[in-house]
C-alpha cells in the first residue's frame, strides 16, 4: 500500500480543558464557511458542498474538521482563519493523515 503524501490537520471538538465544544454543529458551520476554497476555485453550486480541503467528520465519536494542508498553499488567509478559530476556541489540534477506509470483504 502506498503511503499517502498529503497531510491533514484535525481540529477536534474537544477543548484543552477536555470539554465538548458547542454548538453541536460547529464542524458543519466551519466547513460550510470554507466551502468556496477548493481546487479550481469557486464553481456554480460549489456552496452546496464542502471543500475537499475542509471536511467535517466524526472520528471515534468526536466531531472534527479535517483540514488539508493544500488549503495553506491555495489561500493562506483561509488557512489562518481555521487555525485561529481552533486557537481562539482552545480546541485540540492534531497533525495526521486520514487513510481511506479499507474495503469490506464479502462473506461467501
From TrEMBL:
Domain of life of the native organism: Bacteria
One Pfam match: DUF3579
InterPro entries: DUF3579
Designated name of the protein: DUF3579 domain-containing protein
